[in-house]
Amino acid sequence: MTQQPMAQQPAPSQPTRGRAGIVVVSTQASADPTLDRTGPVIAAWLRDRGFTVGDPVVVADGGPIAETVSAELLGDARVVLTTGGTGVTPTDRTPEAVAPLIDLELPGITEEIRRRGLAGAGPTALLSRGIAGITGGGALLVTLPGSRGGVADGLDVLDGLLDHVLAQVHGEGHAPRSAS
């Protein structure tokens, strides 16, 4: 497991929305972090949305996934995104590792990620077993696929939901809808 350095702050003109964590689950990237092609994309996306984010933490498939995600949650992350380990190989066990950390499942998020993947990449997107939900501490936890396309689909889905789900979790209610 690579260690997370000091968190990088959002741009000075943008207020922070809290801390976000990223866990990359990849046996190859754990041996050589330069092979990680999705963690930096997720980090940039979160920073662009005002979150304080450190470098992604990389663990091997079958490694201490739950412990690593738990450490991010204990560090007061409002959002934790994982990438990788959601497929069907013998070591793809990210959903099983983090499922006990989720108190309230949000299956529609990962259903939509798979639907978009099906439209773009084809039927292999349906092999993703990603899960999403709210942890006991009120953080959003989403397991994204390990492919760049799967991450792009996932971030696109989250782009339309992130503000709303965080507001809901923290009791801010529904945003008023404009009259049509």
- Strand content is 15-25%
The total count of helices amounts to 7
Oligomer: single chain
What is the overall silhouette?
A: globular
**What Rg do the Cα atoms give?**
16 Å
Domain count: 1
Give me the CATH fold name: Molybdenum Cofactor Biosythetic Enzyme, Chain A
How many beta-strand elements? 7
Q: Residue ranges: pLDDT <50 for 5 or more in a row?
A: none
Q: What class, by secondary structure content? A: alpha/beta
Q: Spell the H/E element sequence.
A: EHHEEHEHEHEEHH
Structure description:
This protein is of the alpha/beta class and 180 residues long. The protein has a single domain, classed as Molybdenum Cofactor Biosythetic Enzyme, Chain A. It contains 7 helices and 7 strands. Helix 5 crosses helix 6. It starts with 18 loop residues before the first strand and ends in an 11-residue tail after the last helix. The model has no long low-confidence stretch (mean pLDDT 91). Pathway: Cofactor biosynthesis; molybdopterin biosynthesis. Keywords: Molybdenum cofactor biosynthesis, Nucleotidyltransferase, Transferase. One of its GO terms (molecular function) is nucleotidyltransferase activity. Pfam families: MoCF_biosynth.
Layout of helices and strands:
Elements: E1 19-25, H1 27-31, H2 39-48, E2 52-53, E3 57-59, H3 65-74, E4 77-83, H4 94-98, E5 102-105, H5 107-120, E6 132-135, E7 140-144, H6 148-159, H7 162-169
Parallel strand pairs: 1-2, 1-3, 1-4, 4-7
Antiparallel strand pairs: 5-6, 6-7
